[in-house]
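FIELD: query
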Amino acid sequence: MPPKLISTRSVYKNPHAEIMVDEVELNGTRWEQVYVTKTNRDGVAILPVVGDSVYMVRQYRYPIHESIWQFPMGGVEKGQSAEQAARQELEEETGITHATLVKLGTFKPDPGMTSAHMHVYLATDFTVGTAHREKTESDMEVQKIKLTALPSMIEAGTANCGYTMSVYLLYALYRKSKHETR
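FIELD: result
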């Protein structure tokens, strides 16, 4: 049984997100639940694989005050499909175009704090060109990294983004299922 909603209020809103505070009750206990609703509730993450390597991006993330390696990702804009958003983000952040996309799955990255869903795509058979980044991505760098290096990067904390680890897990499950069906 879900908690009963007593009241709800918005404490901050911008074009990208809104911070909500709901007072809820469950079995006689009341509390404030703080969460973020995203304007573009859905997001995409793309794993661009070529041979035994993958393209990753490194970007400074202000809330954690460090630069980390991640797979390309972004939001699904109004009127856009997740696949269209994946293609757009891939080109913007890495310059990759004309990719064959396979949907690996969808996950909820932080269901206790946000309503977001992430749609995950594998990108193969692509062309690498020039990135067309947004102004907020001007510090972003792209690098081709061996897939076998990813577990070590995760263990070392240089690729410790939860989205990236979830995407990598979906990819590992996909590869496992492809090998089992042979």
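FIELD: remark
The domain at 4-38 is CATH 2.20.25 (N-terminal domain of TfIIb).
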